[in-house]
Design a protein that fits this description.
The protein is of the alpha/beta class. It has eight helices and 13 strands. The strands form three sheets. Strands 1, 4, 5, 6, 8, 9, 10, 11 and 12 form a nine-stranded mixed beta sheet that branches. It has a two-stranded antiparallel ribbon with strand order 2-3. Strands 7-13 form a two-stranded antiparallel sheet.
Length: 248
């Protein structure tokens, strides 16, 4: 059974949610009675192949996550990694943090990447099943059902086999309303593409920018969720999640 390493990206500064996130990182904000990141961890716990979870954060919030990791109950090994950035201005971005974690922890296994400010009601088990079947990168999508809303997200067009045929980060004219949810599963032989992409000057900031580049070079398949997903990027979305999210 091939091992899977998990990375939870938690190094953002969430300035749009000030003052809530001035002294507390967004993934530690509570929804349905526990921090957002614990909902993610509880989903990851169901994946037998995951043998370690790395939470990548920054210098500002490193101790917050350390304190949380020391108290959380989890059957998997959790390690908090400090990317040593100190402000929104010197952050190294989502893909920069993935590269940092791969190098810092010498990761050579299949890799699950989850954005730490994500809430999703779907199970990761079905995504892993699809991943094993396709033996290619798999990303989770959610239909936001609005072309206006789609302009805010990484939007994916798929063929009849649910293979990515287009990926555009925040499109001005979306071709679909299928949004990337910030849940990605990469085979270990795909990790080198992250280094290749960054070596070519690709943006470190958004994982979606990397996927825009990757789908032209490697088949990417999609798990399309019918269960809800929340991107906690605003006060409105946080409040909606607190009202609607099913804890479980």
């Amino acid at each position: 059974m091939a091992a899977i390493k998990a990375i939870v990206l938690s190094a953002g500064y969430a300035t749009r949610l000030y003052p809530l996130t001035k002294d507390k990182p967004k993934p530690l904000l509570e929804v349905a009675g526990k921090p957002i990141i614990e909902h993610i961890i509880s989903k990851a716990e169901h994946i037998q192949e995951i043998d370690a979870i790395f939470v990548v954060t920054n210098n500002k919030f490193f101790l917050n996550f350390q304190r949380w990791a020391n108290t959380v109950s989890c059957s998997k090994k959790i390690k908090v990694i400090n990317d040593n950035t100190k402000s929104n201005e010197d952050r190294i971005g989502a893909i920069g943090d993935v590269k940092f974690a791969i190098e810092h922890e010498n990761i050579e296994d299949d890799l699950l990447i989850v954005a730490g400010d994500n809430l999703f009601e779907f199970s990761l088990i079905d995504i892993v099943k699809l991943f094993k079947k396709k033996k290619n990168p798999v990303i989770a999508l959610y239909d936001v059902k609005s072309y206006e809303l789609a302009k805010k997200y990484g939007i994916v067009t798929v063929d009849t086999n649910k293979k990515v045929i287009n990926f555009v980060e925040k499109p001005a004219k979306p071709e679909s309303a299928l949004s990337s949810t910030g849940v990605y599963l990469f085979p270990k032989d795909t990790l080198r593409y992250i280094f290749e992409y960054l070596g070519q000057g690709g943006s470190k900031d958004k994982t979606g920018s990397f996927l825009e580049w990757l789908y032209k070079r490697k088949d990417i398949y999609c798990y399309i969720s019918k269960e809800r997903w929340y991107d906690i990027g605003s006060f409105e979305e946080l409040e909606r999640a607190r009202k609607e999210y099913k804890n479980g």
